Amino acid sequence: MPWPFDREYMQLALAGGLVVGVCAPLIGAFLVQRRMALMGDGIGHVAFAGDTGGLLTGIWPFWTALAAAVAAALGMEHLRRRGRASGDVALALFFYSGIAGGVVLVGLAGSMNAGVLSYLFGSILTITRGELALIGVLGAVVVLTVAATHRPLFALVVDEEWSSVAGLPVASLNTLVAILAAATIVAAMRIVGILLVAALMVLPVASGQLISRSFRGTLVWSSVVGAGSVVAGLVAARLWALAPGGTIVLVCAAVFVLLSVASGRRSHPGRALALRGGPRTG
To answer: Domains of the chain by range and CATH?
Structure first.
């Protein structure tokens, strides 16, 4: 491949980054529409505790982070569905408990080693073939699941009560979104890091809402922006010796600002739903 992807580590980074760049906005679009954009942060912080637990016990952190993230996502959804805590309170509970648990486990380990830092801040340039294979599998599961269920998921984010009356399995769909969000976050943590993973799920969606006039179009354009930001971020990172994860997110932010100025419109969760052309639920 041509420069800057002439080295194997750059090719692995590009492949992993493109998978996450496409998948993160796909799930992020549903979270943004439900005004749960920061759910990624809450799950990510619990995944951090899972990472440190894996490093402490000698288990591959990918699996412990995935288990912790899925448990956190299901816990948030359970609290929200049962009405025992508002979405913000449930998020805060897992957000602060997750980061606190991670700090405690780091203290037990005795030092902030390189493995913890790579998950906290991202380390896309050190992705291995094994990690790429797992990221690819998670990405394929996310894309295929969204493709198969986008109509009922669309109905869910439009009006959960109507979806329940219409006979849709609301509880199962909410659980599905939570699990997909957890899987996406774990796949993305090696790309941009746990501290920035939510940005990759939200900023491309905000840009997609400025470009598109339908929810389906928002999904497509969000993934295009996410993938394009990964490519541009990796090029800029190698050209100017920048941190790749942070550079990718800064590119996402720059795209949103430029589109906002060019279009003169505001991006907000309800806009794409209010316009025609979205997927029908019938």
So the answer is: 8-274 (1.10.3470.10)
